[in-house]
Design a protein that fits this description.
3 domains; Rossmann fold; Glutamyl-tRNA Synthetase, domain 2; binds adenosine-5'-triphosphate; 558 residues; binds magnesium ion; 7-stranded mixed β-sheet; elongated
Length: 558
Amino acid sequence: MNHTANEEHEKLNFIEQLVEEDLKTKKHYGRLLTRFPPEPNGYLHIGHAKSICLNFGLALKYGGKTNLRFDDTNPEKEETEYVESIKHDIKWLGFEWSEELYTSDYFEQLYDFAVILIKKGLAYVDDQTAEQMAAHKGTPTEPGTLSPYTSRTVEENLDLFTRMRAGEFAEGEKTLRARIDMTSPNMHLRDPLMYRIKKDHHHRTGDKWCIYPMYDFAHGQSDSIEKITHSICTLEFEVHRPLYDWYIKQLEIYPSQQTEFARLNLNYTVMSKRKLLKLVQDRYVSGWDDPRMPTISAMRRRGFTPEAIRNFCDTIGVARRENVIDFGLLEFCVREHLNKIALRRMAVIDPLKIIIANFEEGKNEILSAENNPEDPEAGNREMIFTREIFIEHEDFMENPPKKFFRLAPGGYVRLKNAFIIKCDEVIKDDAGKVTQLNCTYVPESRSGHDTSGISVKGVLHWVSATENITAEVRLYDRLFTVENPDNQEKEFLHYVNPDSLKILNKAYIEKHFALDSIDSKFQFLRLGYFCFDKDSTPQHLVFNKTVGLKDSWAKISS
Ligand code: ATP
Ligand code: MG
């Protein structure tokens, strides 16, 4: 290998290196087939996005394929709604699967595999209760002891297993176990469960089955049935690998190979579907797609783009060491993409009225404003300037500190894409709160045609107080108040941030929004990136704040 090729190889992650090696040595006849195997027991989260980008990304890079396999072996937790949402999310992320498959389609085949192991004397029906089994299992430092039922003959086991399938026994009464090694230092090899009885309705097979394969017996065999070459999973399955290999070897079936990588952990959130379901069920959030959730559907609703999520997954990379990624990095990737594509618009979310005394009443001055200075193709839009306008309350200060370049009594400021104005008079209510400013504008200061000679430091966003649309704006903060809600004294639910959603009912937005597509991404000038929420109707527009313009989080936490 020459120097540059070597460097190129260095930049590959360890799974890419492995795949390249296997392709070169024709280990799987030069084939590459990966799979993404979600259990349809919840919506996908950003952790799954990492696995999706990895599995589909490898296939794209090396000319292989990726199967989507629903790992549906737990009848009581699985639903068709989840299947649909998972498919939608993968497509939205920009990936296409080769085949859509279900572990439940292999139930018959898996049953036959189990019979083969029984016939080889490598599996037996056990009558022990879960407690008895646990007691026999030993500990990582002490060997376990044999089940009293290992002495059953092949015929007896075949008969009992057939009757388990036929529904003759109650849940928990019998299990099928692999006969491996009760003294193995690897607990997963101490006669692991292969089948248990469950009299639940399955979302696809209905009531056909009352015995269901365990993850370890289903997963590797499914990989093998599909002739998956590289079965990529998260590190906690590393200790399962000897069992994965054992089943494949004993059954003499296609040798799929398992490789593990470190899962994605993000701070200020939780990522187990069980916990996310709890947040939904106990109504801490409005649903799986509540924009505060770490699910793909929530991120889509919040205005994150597939490009940004893919770029994030690329940036964090693939390694074998667990770490925690800062949520701010994901937001950085979102901001970076939105900066390129977002339409610039003006919105005032905390309005303060200004009356421009020297501007004719009833007159509409049409101004031109760029849709996106980052994108020459984006063109311009029209904005309407009127005698009464709104600016942001916080852009005015009656007694400003020294370097306050926004509006103050007697001071000048530029209204973006419009004119320079001067604040002449401050109107307050009985409580002393500023309610209105009376100003004058400089007619020859029109943006792009400014001949006024006045130089101002501050540029403010604004919206006409008479030519506008009112809207609802939803602002979000972290869903949890602590970095690691999973690892606290109390249960994670105690750390839900009570101020994670703020609703502003009376924001004013420029009229042009009525012409914008529902899928558009926006930058509200000086406020951040926003998108339409799905609750929007033509009569009532609702916006989600996607992310701020700058990393406000880093500022607060540093
Ligand atoms: P959860 O604990 O959130 O329910 P899971 O691992 O049980 O997750 P599955 O539906 O079984 O969820 O996962 C499908 C695939 O996504 C698996 O290959 C799994 O390893 C991967 N995956 C799940 N969570 C993460 C994560 N945080 N980072 C990377 N990959 C993940
Ligand atoms: Mg799982």
